[in-house]
Amino acid sequence: MPILSYILTALAAYLLGSIPTGYLAGRARGIDIRTVGSKNMGATNVFRSVGKTIGILVLLVDAFKGWAAVCLAAPWVLHFTGVPGAPANAPFVASVIAGIGAILGHNYTCWLQFKGGKGIATTAGVMLALVPWGLGIALAVWIVLFAATRYVSVASIGAAAVLPFATWFTTHSPTLTVIFSALGALAIYKHKANIQRLRAGTENRISFKKKEPTP
Q1: pLDDT band at 214 (very low <50, low <70, confident <90, very high)
Q2: pTM to 2 decimals?
Q3: For the chain, does the N or the C end have fewer beta carbons within 10 angstroms?
Q4: Rounded average pLDDT over 102-116
Q5: Same domain for 145 and 41?
Q6: What are the Cα distances from residue 209, in Å, to 118, 149, 206?
Q7: Are residues 139 and 91 in the same domain?
Q8: Do 191 and 138 share a domain, yes or no?
Q9: Is residue 141 within 8 Å of residue 162, measured between CB atoms?
Q10: What is the average pLDDT score of the chain?
């Protein structure tokens, strides 16, 4: 069994996911994203507190981290550490491990005292690599909920909640369904502060209208 390969895959994926994109983007503009807005390092807070263009860039890079961990890091590690006679499902196992590692790296980055984002974009990148049609369903739910509420948190929680159903419907894989059920639950857990603000009526909506200049 290529246990060493799996361990190295997990480590490589974690380090890739742990790159604190939102924090670095804020620092590049002289802003510590941990001290402004919702104090979260995710793309939404960057979008609000640093700028829309930077926020979209952070979103894309965070998603890329998840995709790259599965499609680039896992095959690369297996190629250089492969064990003769490894089981036929080794690439699949390594890919799953890489996806989980990247999300955990993003959510609990070792570079910032194990505090990170909420993992929505990175999870989307992992889904793009492993369950692309399932991602399409989750994305459709996200768009509908966001259009109806203008709450990114509501859209993200809703999309996370449908991950197990979207995964099973598109793959019929018990393994992937269990994994994305756990990842969806983790994403919802990471939104606990948003849930509290939603209950209190203090959660911020996204507005695309330009603010009127102050007289």
Answers
A1: very low
A2: 0.93
A3: C
A4: 96
A5: no
A6: 26, 15, 9
A7: no
A8: yes
A9: yes
A10: 92
